[in-house]
Amino acid sequence: MSIEVLESVPTGLLIGGEWRPGSGATIAVENPATQATLAQIADGTPEDMAAALDAAVAAQDSWAATAPRERGEILRRAFDEVTRRSEEFALLITLEMGKPLAESRGEVRYGAEFLRWFSEEAVRVAGSWQTSPEGTTRLLTMKAPVGPTFMVTPWNFPLAMATRKVAPAVAAGCTMVLKPSELTPLTSLLFAEVLRASGLPDGVLNVVNTSDAPSASARILSDPRLRKLTFTGSTAVGQHLIKAASEQVLRVSMELGGNAPVIVFGDADLDRAVQGLLDAKMRNGGQACTAANRVLVHESVADVFAKRVAEAMGSLRVGPGTEPTSQVGPVIDHRALDKLGRLVEESAGRGSSVLTGGQALPGPGYFFAPTVLRLAEGSEQSDEELFGPVAPVETFATEDEAVTKANATRYGLASYLFSTDLGRVLRVAERLEFGMIGVNQGIISNAAAPFGGVKQSGFGREGGREGIDEYLETKYVGIAP
Ligand code: NAD
Q: Assuming Cys at both sites, which of 164, 176, 270, 300 could form a disulfide with 266, CB separation 3.0 to 4.6 Å?
């Protein structure tokens, strides 16, 4: 099966509905569990990026004029096809990204759901009609697609990060150039082929992989025909792209890094809190922007909670994602492995105790032991994304202190709180400076919900009713009756 699935993945550049070989240079795609090369794919140049934009621009007008029902039906057919081929997609995700197969199947369900959700939203785009307050004019608003959009995605959810952008753009009538992460491009390539086979017209979706993202991005972002940039990835790269996008005053959506707190109050149901933390921490091996990065526990339950979490994390089976027994896969590359080792060492240097794990595991592959740290009294955790299976536990004494500590970060993406007191849940949810708050659960992503952050976690929302707005302009027409 593993060889078969690789054979069905196109390896070229998708430009104007054709798979092109590119200039001859290739990017090797590595399996992080074995360090073996899975495939060689075409390495796009800035000129390829410009050709992809030519194709997107050429397709824009007729695509915008296509009936919303037809756009929706293309998405629905793609949903059916991704679902029918879910085992292939899941295996591909595991091979190039590393997560265990069971989690990859979860990503396929989640990722496909954006295709279904936006197939339904495509026919619900509407404007408004109003009489002006003084009664002298009529105010008509109509929605129009933003236009050709450049999409940049990360490696950690190779299917879902693409469908979360592509599906609303298709529904709204925008054409696109997608640049997947060079670390996990194969899933996006197969997804693009599925969309093409589902009837997406030539040029609506173009895909260019490249080993030189800065040059390729600079080329497309400086082209005045581009209308929008949507980016998911690290805050540092996002900041750079926001600046670059200002040159053409592009519409911009940014889904950036996170530093999610998990707050466990003294009145929490501890069974749920332990499970919720495991979900929030260990999904994707901790390599999620929504991953628990700090665990704040009320001092009355901190000892028992930390002990239970350490037992649960310590018993997780680590191994290649293709092994059915593996519960935690490798991290993405040696840089991620080195960073985790450094952060754990620095924390221990500040007096933290290691309750379980604490180090990299023998290779091949980039494996790190699930780790629980108990921070020393008064020690500060750095405002850095761990992006791996490490859970630092610290304590608080009052509700105020919990909120202050939770908000003490430049990020504002996901947060979680565990409490059985409804008043407290509402009070704390109102004060948390995060775009998303999970209450008594550790998984909050849902295609029907608006996903996104505040502060340096970005702006704009993906999914939910809001998701399609990112790809629509509002036009106002004033009419004298
Ligand atoms: P990254 O920022 O290194 O890369 C993201 C993408 O940007 C990749 O496709 C990469 O090739 C491209 N890129 C890198 N430098 C570029 C440049 N100069 N110009 C243009 N493109 C460039 O991030 P990553 O390591 O792939 O992903 C992990 C990060 O993504 C984490 O910070 C995580 O929190 C974040 N993330 C956020 C969300 C969200 O929805 N908020 C979701 C998933 C991941």
A: 300
